[in-house]
């Protein structure tokens, strides 16, 4: 789903069954944040506040963490997460969907 305008987002949460994750080991995956330029830090602060307002994200004290990556696309900034290290620690399914 892609939004045409921010105002189109109504809010709320998607109710689904919990997804079982099969990790190769029991050690939590935690990575320190990447260094960012001040412009990027400001963008991240604005985007996280917006996502909290929309109830897309919430504060967490989890032992798991993946770094944020700011991608530039046609001069605009995009908020992304880098799950590559987390994915390396997951058991791959033999027959994925």
Key features of this structure:
single chain; 97 residues; alpha+beta; two-stranded antiparallel ribbon; 2 helices
Task: Give the helix tally.
Answer: 2
Order of helices and strands: HEEH
Q: Tell me roughly what share of residues is in helical segments.
A: 10-25%
Intertermini distance: 19 Å
Largest sheet: 2 strands, antiparallel
**Number of DSSP E strands:** 2
Overall 3D shape? globular
Classify the beta-strand content into a percent band: 5-15%
Low-confidence segments: none
Average pLDDT, rounded to a whole number, is 80
Give me the Rg, rounded: 16 Å
Question: Spatial order of the strands in the main sheet?
Answer: 1-2
**Structural class from helices and strands?**
alpha+beta
Account of the 3D structure:
- With 97 residues, this protein is α+β, with helices and mostly antiparallel strands.
- The protein has two helices and two strands.
- It has a two-stranded antiparallel ribbon with strand order 1-2.
- Strand 1 and strand 2 form a beta hairpin.
- It is globular and about 40 Å long.
């Amino acid at each position: 789903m892609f939004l045409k305008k921010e105002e189109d987002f109504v809010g709320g949460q998607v109710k689904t069954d919990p997804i079982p994750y099969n990790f190769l080991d029991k050690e939590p995956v935690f990575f320190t944040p990447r260094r960012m330029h001040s412009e990027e830090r400001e963008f991240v602060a604005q985007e996280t506040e917006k996502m909290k307002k929309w109830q897309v994200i919430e504060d967490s004290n989890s032992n798991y963490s993946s770094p944020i990556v700011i991608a530039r696309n046609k001069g605009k900034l995009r908020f992304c997460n880098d799950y590559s290290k987390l994915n390396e620690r997951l058991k791959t399914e033999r027959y994925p969907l």
